Amino acid sequence: MRYIREMLLVMVLVFSCSESSDIAKYEPVSVEVEMPSNFPDMVYNMDNNPITEAGFELGKDLFYEGKLSSNNAIACAFCHEQAFAFTHHGHNLSHGVDGGVGTRNAQPIQNLAYQTSFMWDGAATHLDLQPIIPLTSEVEMNETLSNVISKLEADTDYQDKFARAFEDGEVNTENMLKALSQFMVMMVSSNSKYDKYVRNEDNVTFTALETDGLNTFNNKCATCHATDLFSDQSFRNNGLPINPLLDDKGSYDILENTEDLYKFKVPSLRNVVVTYPYMHDGRFTTLEAVLDFYDNGAIDNGNVDPLLLREDGSYGITLSDYEKESLIAFLNTLTDTEFLEDERFAEF
Amino acid sequence: MKLLKYTFALLACAIFTNCSIDNDDNEEDLSGETGELILKFDNSVGDQDFIFETSYSKSNNESFKLTNVKYIISNVRVTDTEGNTFTYPTEENVFIVSELNGNNAGEIYITLNDIDAADYTEITFGIGIDQERFALGADGQGDFLDLASEEGMMWSWASGYKFVRFDGTFSTDTVTDEPLNIHMGSVGEALDNYREVTLSFPNTVLVREENSPEVHIVADISKVFDGATTVNFADGYDQVHTDETETPIIASNVQTMFEVHHVHND
């Protein structure tokens, strides 16, 4: 049987030039993925899912496709909008199909190929499989994988797009997830003012205020918001008061280990100026509020990160007014307008 | 055009069939020959056949009734009398055994095709999804993701597989018909609950082109709770999901539940 398939393939190849059909064919045109020199090593294994132009384009179509949801209206992009580094603008808790409200603030989609886990609690450990969560979650897209595939299969446009993107050309879950990953792997944000400054590009310089902010950041924040991804990718409890309405226990819910109580993924601070509101539940609307929280809002919720323990026994990070001002100036240098306006990732 | 394709395919087919016939003049030589191997899973509780909604007692005066019995079997391989191991092709080597798909006798069949013809003495398989397969992400999963999702063998709040699903109700001395849900699986690399079992065949399994032997595997569900470790619903084993202390115990119990009851060499 396998021989037959191979033979058919040979036949198709041999006769393809003479064939005047309009059937789409596999187009393995590979695309370069950006690996910025100031980033740590990429985690995503592209050998298992080589990125092609057609695969990336299909992934983008799927990301903006309402059919991925039960009411055909909620696309991934509904909660992940480009102008806000692909977060759900103006929503502390994202809502999906039929107004269902989730319990967390949408995370930005950027540099995911460099991440070891996904979601605020790390509930996803492979980028390819992450989309299954929003797709099948009742309060997000409320669909089933097989139903999404049936909808896509019925669409001749998608039949062609899958045929161009994948060797076996099949409209199936494997290929849908691979295409979404290809799109997300390409979404690298690495051209902020800060990046150009550390890479000595375009003669970019920092103002005195920005430099002071960078120094304060390195002294007081970079243990957790580490590397040029601005996250050490660990799960930590930064002393936020518990919201009794949600009582979100963070990564505790996964292994039910009490050491994980109220721990959340240290978020990247790239494009942080546009990703408001802040924290896993979006409780702070401004960066000023975040810094005031670190300075004097943290509480002992039973499991706060020891790094935040101050000499007087309280938790937090003491910050003067000038330190706050300079930190905000520094955080502003992490905005990457090239990424936020990159047409490759834009819907239209 | 289409006609030409098929003619060519038929031709190719004929050529390949011919070759294998040519090689077949020595009756001891099994090289190139393949056959089917059928695995027949039969769930039981102790020495009773498993039946939905029937109450079975366990240790500690507790009992359970189940409406759902499913588990993932993967990485099936068989070893022959000469010590050679035949591993089923990785991409297809993952199955969901669900009591709901059983015949009237509650038997669930998995047919393995294109197994090298040989005299096999033992079988090894995994319960769940191993780290290597998980690390492939979507790659090579084909339709298994849809199947697993449809069968409720994937979490919707985390990206991972439920290796087993035992859903129903339980009763103890103090409570009656409370919900029972045992959904054990791995969590990324942090918690690896994949386990393998190796079972010897009571007599040699002869896989031949014209022979499709059947291996009758009995899975004793009572072992989930009274296996290597005895666990009590009253102590929190009524709801098992991704907890890092409870799930490895269930995984090790599930590992003890399989036995090859007999083999048919038809």
Report on the structure:
The complex is a heterodimer of chains A (348) and B (266). Chain A has 348 residues and is an all-alpha fold. Chain A has 2 domains: 25-188, Cytochrome Bc1 Complex, Chain D, domain 2; 193-338, Cytochrome c-like domain (Cytochrome Bc1 Complex, Chain D, domain 2, Orthogonal Bundle), CATH 1.10.760. Chain A is 34% helix and 1% strand. Chain A has a two-stranded antiparallel ribbon. Chain A is globular, with a radius of gyration of 23 Å. Chain B folds into 2 domains: 1-30; 33-264. Helix content of chain B is 16%, strand content 39%. In chain B, 37% of the residues are buried. The interface between A and B is large, with 43 and 38 residues.
Average pLDDT score of chain A? 92
How large is the share of residues in beta strands of chain A?
under 5%
As a percent range, the share of helical residues of chain B equals 10-25%
Question: Which CATH C-level class of the largest domain in chain A is it?
Answer: Mainly Alpha
Task: Give a quick precis of the structure.
Chain B: Residues 1-21 form the signal peptide. Chain B: Residues 34-235 form the Copper-binding protein MbnP-like domain. By secondary structure, chain A is mainly α.
Topology record:
The complex is a heterodimer of chains A (348) and B (266).
Chain A: H1 2-16, H2 53-63, H3 76-79, H4 132-136, H5 145-153, H6 156-165, H7 173-186, H8 193-198, H9 208-220, E1 235-236, H10 252-255, E2 264-265, H11 287-296, H12 321-332, H13 337-340
Helix pairs in contact in A: 2-6, 2-7, 9-12
Chain B: H1 2-22, E1 34-45, E2 48-49, E3 56-57, E4 63-80, E5 85-87, E6 94-98, E7 107-116, E8 118-127, H2 131-135, H3 144-150, E9 164-171, E10 178-182, E11 195-207, E12 214-220, E13 239-240, H4 246-255, E14 258-264
Pfam families (chain B): MbnP
Domain Copper-binding protein MbnP-like (chain B): 34-235
Keywords (chain B): Signal
